[in-house]
Amino acid sequence: MGKAMQKQLAWSTDIDLALLREVVRVEPYDGEYGTLTARWKAIASSLSTLFECEIPYRSARDHYEFMVETFKSTDKAQRLWGTGSDEEVTEQVQLLQDLVDRRAATDEAKKSKKDKEQKKRDSLESTGSQLCLEAEQRVVKRQRSVSSVTTKKEDPDAVAQDLLEFEKKKAF
Predict the structure, then answer these.
(1) Is residue 155 part of a domain?
(2) CB-facing half-sphere around the CA of 121: CA atoms within 13 A
(3) What would the pLDDT profile of 89-124 be if each residue is shown by its tens digit?
(4) Residue-wise DSSP of the chain
């Protein structure tokens, strides 16, 4: 008939910390294209064996994204208004800050690599266009010189005139 209802996972602080540690270890967003799902499955599998319950990779990924978004919003608010006190930084906050920084660095590296490749493509394209233009100019120049030579040869008066001048120079 239908799928059996799965027990809903209650995320605890211990599971959250384990999830963050696994994300730091595996770094799912730092991989090549197409490896993201496999990396999240590895994280979920590791958490499942650690806590002896089934944790779907999608649930782990969604919960991680939720934690990061919550952290970013509270961190931004704290920076804007400030708390005025020296709060003790928990391991979870340290891990989240580390992961946010790593992801930003990875995104920046990917963006700069993409920009560099685009610049290279543009450079090659402009160089190729310039080479094509120069080749076309050489062909046109060659056609002009060939056509001027053939017109001189085809004109019988010009040929006769050249021969007459040659004979005059030879006589003197």
Answers:
(1) no
(2) 6
(3) 788 999 999 999 999 998 899 899 999 999 988 888
(4) --PPPPPPP---HHHHHHHHHHHHHH-GGGS-TT-HHHHHHHHHHHHHHHHTS---HHHHHHHHHHHHHHHHHHHHHHHHH--SS-PPPPHHHHHHHHHHHHHHHHHHHHHHHHHHHHHHHHHHHHHHHHHHHHHHHHHHHHHHHHHHHHHHHH-HHHHHHHHHHHHHHHH-
Tell me how far apart the alpha carbons of residues 170 and 141 are, in angstroms, rounded to a whole number.
34
Q: What's the rounded Cα separation, in Å, for the pair 62 and 57?
A: 9
Asked if the structure places residue 158 within a domain, the reply is no
Q: For residue 110, is it within any domain?
A: yes
Q: Residue 49 belongs to what domain range?
A: 13-74+87-131
Burial (0-12, 13-18, 19+ Cβ within 10 Å), 68:
middle
Tell me if 34 is assigned to some domain: yes
Regarding pTM above 0.85, the answer is no
Indicate the residue type of 10.
A
